[in-house]
Design a protein that fits this description.
6-stranded antiparallel sheet, Rossmann fold, globular, alpha/beta, about 400 residues, single chain
Length: about 400
């Protein structure tokens, strides 16, 4: 079904009460297939009081999709069908359940993570579609300066590189892209993740299983006994994991991980707030990279944009960068959104000797920010303005995510 999905036209399923099983199977296959064709990252099937809504998350934005009439009658069958595909207990409707489905689409393996949530109007079910990305350094959209900084970081023999940002800001994709570019025959790369979102051939990937005490900390300890060159820890969740990662960096390993902070300098504060000694942060972390995802303008319908000089001054974009700004319009090719795809904007704070001293001396966030700027750090919004000047995205998108 899915292997041949690219040859199939998008269709509308008529749910037939006389042959409900076959039509429900067809409808579930159809929404997964359409979501993959539309490059959606998530599908949400949500029961309302007297209806059932299906939504796709495309380029970070939720969009309702048309559903057959009287779909509410098939609510239980739809949820049960997905539970069967994910090997979940179809009789358990009171507790949340997690599962997975493995599919093939256009010759690529797709991993679908399933999460059910019992709500007052019935079970809601979310499907996360993983395995669609290509981890290509050229696709990251790094500016020349940022690319040079990142290549220098990837060439380091040891130290920690931390990617920061809120959920859904593309941190995992950046980590996987870094690992894919380091993945050579002379390096042993081992990861511990929750969950393993994408498989990289040649990389040893471990999934955390807290129920059997395989936590980030326990997994990381065993990884370090296995002679790795490069280690990736899905997230610095607690002091124990962070301390082991720092020890690993100080004993000759290159470590990559993520933190949930709003900007690069916030990463320093987060580690210190966790209880990590400032001198250890300064001596082990090589860089903090903050990022966000902006939607890319649809090349078929975007138009040059005009803004008042006062508005441009108020938002802080240099006037020469706004000269080539475009606006989103919307056409059939981009589903009337004006955008197609996403690209990351970055803020890269390299821990220079000056910053190392300041971190150890417990300098304030404001002082660290000023010092980082004086050492060449460009903040997220400034990188966003570069993308506006190139015609990649819009002023509105940069303001939305920064």
């Amino acid at each position: 079904e899915f292997a041949a999905a690219n040859d199939l036209e998008q269709e509308t399923t008529i749910l037939d009460e006389n042959d409900s099983e076959a039509s429900v199977i067809k409808f579930v296959n159809q929404i997964i297939r359409e979501a993959l064709q539309e490059r959606a990252t998530d599908i949400h099937i949500e029961p309302l009081e007297d209806d059932l809504q299906v939504r796709y998350r495309i380029d970070g934005v939720l969009r309702n999709i048309p559903v057959p009439p009287r779909i509410k009658l098939f609510q239980a069958s739809l949820i049960s069908r997905i539970k069967i595909m994910a090997h979940l207990d179809i009789a358990e409707r009171r507790l949340p359940q997690d599962g997975r489905i493995n599919l093939e689409f256009e010759g690529r393996p797709i991993d679908v993570r399933i999460a059910t949530i019992p709500s007052v109007t019935g079970e809601s079910i979310s499907l996360r579609l993983l395995g669609q990305q290509r981890f290509d350094f050229a696709q990251m959209g790094l500016s020349e300066t940022h690319e040079a900084s990142v290549r220098n970081l990837l060439a380091l023999p040891n130290g920690i590189v931390l990617i920061t940002g809120p959920t859904g800001s593309g941190k995992s994709t950046t980590l996987y892209t870094f690992l894919a570019s380091l993945n050579t025959k002379d390096r042993r790369i081992v990861t511990i993740e929750d969950p393993v979102e994408n498989k990289i051939p040649g990389v040893v990937q471990i999934a955390v299983k807290p129920e059997i005490n395989l936590t980030f900390a326990a997994g990381l300890r065993s990884i370090l006994r296995g002679d790795p060159n490069v280690v990736m820890v899905g997230e610095m969740r607690d002091v124990e994991t962070t301390e082991i990662a720092i020890r690993a960096a100080l004993t000759g390993h290159l470590v990559f991980s993520t933190l949930h902070t709003n900007d690069a300098i916030g990463g320093i504060t987060r580690l210190v707030d966790m209880g990590i000694e400032p001198f250890l942060v300064g001596s082990s972390v090589r860089a903090f990279i903050a990022q966000r995802l902006v939607r890319v303008l649809c090349p078929w319908c975007c138009e040059p944009a005009q803004y008042s000089e006062q508005y441009l001054k108020d938002i802080g974009i240099p006037l020469e960068k706004a000269k080539t700004a475009h606006r989103a319009v919307g056409c059939d090719r981009c589903r009337q959104t004006g955008y197609q795809g996403r690209r990351a904007i970055f803020e890269i704070c390299i821990v220079t000797p000056l910053l190392q001293e300041m971190i150890t001396a417990k300098a304030t966030n404001a002082a660290l920010k000023e010092a980082a700027k004086s050492q060449g750090m460009r903040n997220l919004r400034d990188d966003g303005w570069e993308k506006v000047a190139e015609g990649t995205t819009t002023i509105e998108e940069v303001l939305r995510v920064t």
